[in-house]
Amino acid sequence: MKRVQFSSASLPYLYLLPQLAIIVVFFYWPSVQAIQSSFYLEDPFGFGSTFVGLDNYTDVLESSSYGEIARFTVVFTLLVTFLSLSLALLFAVKADAVLKGSSTYKTLLMWVYAIAPPVAGLMGVMFFDMHIGPFLEVARLVGWDFRIGLNYFDTAFAMVVISVWKQIPYNFIFFLSGLQAIPKSLREAGAIDCRSGFRRFWTITLPLLAPTAFFLLIINMTYALFDTFGIIDVVVKDKAANNPITLVYKVYMDGFRGGDLGGSSAQSVILMFVVFVLTIFQFRFIERRVHYN
Amino acid sequence: MATISLETIRKVYAGDVEAVKGVSIDIADGEFIVLVGPSGCGKSTLLRMIAGLEDITSGEARIGEKVVNKVDPADRDIAMVFQNYALYPHMTVYNNLAYGLKNRGTPKAEIERRVKEAARILEIGDYLDRKPRALSGGQRQRVAMGRAIVREPAAFLFDEPLSNLDAKLRVQMRVEIKRLQRELGTTSVYVTHDQLEAMTLADRLVVLNGGNIEQIGAPIEVYQNPASTFVASFIGSPAMNLLKVTAGEVGLALESGSGLSGPNSKGKDRYTLGIRPEHLEVSDGPTDGDGLSLEVTVNVLELVGAESFVYASFADGGPEIVLRVPSHARYTPGETLHLKALAEDVRFFDADTGKLIG
Amino acid sequence: MYRTRLSDHLILILGSFMMIGPVAVIFLTSTHDAVEVHRHGLMATWGGHFTDTYRKVLFESGGFTGQATGLRMLMNSMILGIGFAVGKIVLSMMAAYAIVYFRFRMGTFFFWVIFTTLLLPLEVRIVPSYEVVQKLGMLNTYSGMIVPLLASATGTFYFRQFFKSVPDELLEAARIDGAGPWKFFIDILVPISKTMIAAIFIIMFVYGWNQYLWPMMMTSDEVYFTLVRGIKQILLVWVGSQIPDYNEAFALAVLAMLPPVIVVVVFQSWFIKGLTESDK
Ligand SMILES: Nc1ncnc2c1ncn2[C@@H]1O[C@H](COP(=O)(O)OP(=O)(O)OP(=O)(O)O)[C@@H](O)[C@H]1O
Ligand SMILES: [Mg+2]
């Protein structure tokens, strides 16, 4: 790390202790518990639990509802990632291109970052609301009888729109600073070599933005998988009945509302695995990027 | 004030890099020692071991009478000036100078007196309230010096303190450092890879190569009698001409076949012959006697102002040689020159070990 | 070079409108009274009930038991946001300091123990986390709300990156100047990390303030409700009511977004720097 370091028998441990203690108690303990209880069947009335091996996993993986939710989660994740990335990229490229008002646009396009997902969810729900929402009128114009909370597709549509809206600012910030980090001389060289602005974007700007985009890809997938919880919760209002939900929401529903601790834990572990893979990707990538620079 | 003595100091870094291989030096009180050598030869490592920033793998370091191998840097009574100055960016110049004194519990009034005094000597009195960010490179350098002198330490350690300055400032600060050190009389160890800096500053030069000392001596001594071909080519610019020769029946022969006449090394028939560029003189024709005499073809004439350098080579290839000529001299490429030098200016080095013979 | 075209501005104006429009409408609607909203839907005009509604939301109790006023929730959100940010900064700076500036056995081991937490967000271990907090008797406490959120390495990662970029010579100079580990930390490292600390404070404050799932799970006592948590309560109260108090709900939503938005907009440059330069 550093060429010269302090050497002390106790100090480093002392500095690490608070962080470590919290991590052990509130990270490792619950994580181990999740893994452990995924192999047990909890008695619903609290009379102990029995070891059932991989039953919870097979139950989860074989249940048709889980498959359906997993499928929705994948579609939801891909849609949210793709839409929020492309819109943010569009805005970032434009905000980078204009000479006047660039910093005003920047502020206007990024500030929504600060809004909590459930607050965004509440606002969105009101826009799609069947009594007071203005979106209904628009939908009616094209003959769409929009019914949030009742119609599966309509609810999913609202969820995607709200989630994308909430995530655009984050991506915008990264794309814009990525664009601004491209040296001016490179752009000038590009301008000399290539007349078509569109081609220039594809052949010069975009490849240079690729590291940022890849980083954001992973972050957005994590966002769609986990951070959208607040949005989904507000949209479905605890009535998952006919509504689309994501895997994380199911973990919460089964573990909290349903009291199926074993099943919920097995789902947690499956999700842990998914995040694990995503994060490994991210780490490897960050390492590579460090190399390049 | 103190002497510093190093006794077969070694440094082995993790991963078996032996950066310093048993170095011994005795530095007198008030002496200005310059460690010089090419990049990676272990200069910084040696200096940092004196400072206490690196552990000493084996050997013994003493400052004054005290063995300091296990002493914390703060307790060695040394001050160090870093290449990037390492000023505390969030402190004013005054606090940068005062910080070390405060940590030692120096009374406030005394701190103030010393800071003011250092500021006066270095002419940084006007900037005491500024942050380093608001200073020019030269001013920062002075602050770094100031931080060292307020401490009134037993020794100053410098690690390439001037290499971040432009050429003009470097010369100016070089003179100033020398003056300061004279005035304060503080024992100093100074690291540089710039041989000109080394020559002008040092009371004694220590030439390092690959973790070993090649030569210790007064600059002029090192210049005139380099202990090895390494030192010969490192000290002096342009470097000493080195010609690998074999003594034959008549005169000497280069590997490429060209012949020249010159003095014989006692008892060896293969050796390296060294001659400084300023000792070569253009003559009208081949010369006799025991001096050096050779014939070369001019490649390039390099005008540097007060003088010029002529780069020339032998008829059938071989090493290029350099000679120093007055700036009014004009030679054209392709021209043949007869060169001569006095026997006493020629140095001989062992063909295999590169060590000075005689 | 590239010339700005009208379409560029058009797209940007459209985008800005897309970001601001909904929030503006929600704010404007919150100034109307509930009946009007129920009758006419969301409003894009100023309603004139601004002071009434916001005074009511801030100072009168709502919810199930009538214990949580808006002001109380605002305070709780502040405690969560600031407590989380400060806790995060203190813990992670110390941990990063140990990792970067000390040579000690098990250093690498602890590094991995801490950095593994980046792998699993709280959401996937939410149920067992709840049980742990329950076992420790920390349900319905501020510490129970804040401390489990601190069990991740994000801040440590930031500070580690930053400390590694600090020139080695600074420590060396300080050691020669007689600074020990604690003095170096307080006198040198903390002051030169100021902007970094500010940036991380902003990011963490927003993150803490916006927490939803965790506070929702571990606070059943309305005294501990935060504004964001209050959103859930609004929706629960609405179920079955004739004319929901849209205006009050929106006022609460506006209050819930106001502080983090102000912080992010005012300290924009620090915030963006902190976000983009530390690679999460
Ligand atoms: N921390 C370290 N770990 C391992 N090897 C090191 C370390 N520091 C230096 N070295 C090696 O030790 C040798 C001497 O390094 P040192 O820094 O003393 O060289 P130097 O003479 O100061 O060179 P320069 O003129 O480039 O500063 C080099 O080969 C270097 O690669
Ligand atoms: Mg060096």
Automatic annotation (TrEMBL), chain A:
InterPro entries in the record: MetI-like, MetI-like_sf, UgpAE/MalFG_permease
A GO cellular-component term linked to this record: plasma membrane
Entry keywords, A to Z: Cell inner membrane, Cell membrane, Membrane, Transmembrane, Transmembrane helix, Transport
ABC transmembrane type-1 domain: residues covered: 74-282
Segments passing through the bilayer: 12-29, 69-93, 105-128, 148-165, 201-226, 266-286
A GO BP entry: transmembrane transport
Pfam family, one: BPD_transp_1
Subunit structure: The complex is composed of two ATP-binding proteins (UgpC), two transmembrane proteins (UgpA and UgpE) and a solute-binding protein (UgpB).
Role noted for this protein: Part of the ABC transporter complex UgpBAEC involved in sn-glycerol-3-phosphate (G3P) import. Probably responsible for the translocation of the substrate across the membrane.
Protein name: sn-glycerol-3-phosphate transport system permease protein UgpA
Biological classification of the source: Bacteria, Pseudomonadati, Pseudomonadota, Alphaproteobacteria, Hyphomicrobiales
From TrEMBL, chain B:
SMART domains found in the cross-reference section: AAA
Keyword match Phosphoprotein: no
Topology in the lipid bilayer: Peripheral membrane protein
Keywords annotated in UniProt: ATP-binding, Cell inner membrane, Cell membrane, Membrane, Nucleotide-binding, Sugar transport, Translocase, Transport
PANTHER family xrefs: MALTODEXTRIN IMPORT ATP-BINDING PROTEIN MSMX, SN-GLYCEROL-3-PHOSPHATE IMPORT ATP-BINDING PROTEIN UGPC
Molecular function via GO: ABC-type transporter activity; ATP binding; ATP hydrolysis activity
Family: Belongs to the ABC transporter superfamily.
Organism domain of life: Bacteria
Subcellular location: Cell inner membrane
Span of domain ABC transporter: 4-235
PROSITE patterns: ABC_TRANSPORTER_1, ABC_TRANSPORTER_2
UniProt GO cellular component terms: ATP-binding cassette (ABC) transporter complex, substrate-binding subunit-containing
Transmembrane region(s): none
GO biological process terms on file: carbohydrate transport; glycerol-3-phosphate transmembrane transport; glycerophosphodiester transmembrane transport
Alphabetical list of CDD domains matching this protein: ABC_MalK_N (cd03301)
UniProt protein name: Sn-glycerol-3-phosphate import ATP-binding protein UgpC
A Pfam family per the record: TOBE_2
Automatic annotation (TrEMBL), chain C:
Record's subcellular location: Cell inner membrane; Cell membrane
Keyword Mitochondrion belongs to the record: no
UniProt entry keywords in alphabetical sequence: Cell inner membrane, Cell membrane, Membrane, Transmembrane, Transmembrane helix, Transport
A GO BP entry: transmembrane transport
Transmembrane recorded as keyword: yes
Transmembrane stretches, start-end: 9-29, 78-102, 109-130, 142-163, 184-209, 249-272
Superkingdom per UniProt: Bacteria
Gene Ontology CC terms: plasma membrane
Subunit structure as annotated in this protein's UniProt entry: The complex is composed of two ATP-binding proteins (UgpC), two transmembrane proteins (UgpA and UgpE) and a solute-binding protein (UgpB).
Family: Belongs to the binding-protein-dependent transport system permease family.
Name of the protein this chain belongs to: sn-glycerol-3-phosphate transport system permease protein UgpE
Lineage of source species: Bacteria, Pseudomonadati, Pseudomonadota, Alphaproteobacteria, Hyphomicrobiales
Originating gene: ugpE
